[in-house]
Amino acid sequence: STEGNNISLGRYSNNSFGSVSYFRKSRGSLGSQGIVSSNDDLGISVFSGSDGSNFIQAATIKASVDGTPGTNDMPGRLVFSTSADGSSSPTERLRITSAGNVGIGITNPLSTLHVQQVNFGGTSSNEVARFISHTPGGLRGISIWAPGDTSGFGKIAMEGTSARLSFWTGTTSTEKMSILSNGNVGIGTAAPAEK
After folding, report:
1. pLDDT digits (tens, 9 = 90+) for 155-169
2. Which of 36, 48, 45, 47 is nearest to 63 (CA)?
3. CA nearest 64: which of 105, 29, 95?
4. In this predicted structure, what is the pLDDT of residue 123?
5. Contact 107, 115 (CB under 8 A)
6. CA dihedral over 162, 142, 134, 175, signed as positive or negative
7. By mean pLDDT, which of 61-75, 119-133, 170-184 is the weakest?
8. b/e map of 50-71 (b: 16 or more CB within 10 Å)?
9. Could you give the CA distance from residue 170 to residue 136 in angstroms, rounded to a whole number?
10. Which residues are CB-neighbours of 135 under 8 A, at least 6 positions away?
11. Most exposed residue of 93, 98, 136, 147, measured as fewest CB within 10 angstroms of its CB?
C-alpha cells in the first residue's frame, strides 16, 4: 500500500512469513526472457536528501550478478555505498560476494572478512587485515599488513588439530612464537617443551 509518498509492506497472517519486495532483471522482454550477464545490476535502493534545491544521493544498496549465470544458477553480490561529507555521490564501502566473502574498502575480498584502507600513509591503497582459513587442521586467524606491504606483515593464527596459537612477523611472515594448549611457550620453535 502507499501512504502519502511512502510505500509500506505488511503481511497479516498467522505464520512465520514476512513481506517481500522483488527487484527483477531480464535482458529480454516479459514474455521472452533473456539471461542476464555477470555484473548486470539486478536492483538498486537509492537514499537521497534535499540540499535545499536538489535531491542528493547519500547512500545506495545494489544487488548485481556476481559470476556467470545459468539454468537455476544466479550468483549474486550486494554492494553498500555511502557519500562522504562534501561529496554528492556514493562510494562503495562494503561488498558481499557470491562466495560469501565480505570486503571493506576492497572490491575483490579474498577471505571471509578482508579489510583494506584507502589513502593510508600517502599510498593509494593498503591492505589492513584479512581473516585467514587454510585447509582443515591448518591455520585459522588474522593476517595484518603494514603500510605499503603486500606480502603480509604479521599473523596471529590458531592451528586446528593441536590448538596451537602462533605469532608470525616479517615481510615474509615467518613464525616467531608459539603457545601450545598445555601452556608451553616457544620463541623460534613451534614445538616448545617448557613453559
Report:
1. 787 876 667 888 888
2. 45
3. 95
4. 46
5. no
6. negative
7. 119-133
8. eeeeeeebbebebbbbbeebee
9. 25
10. none
11. 136
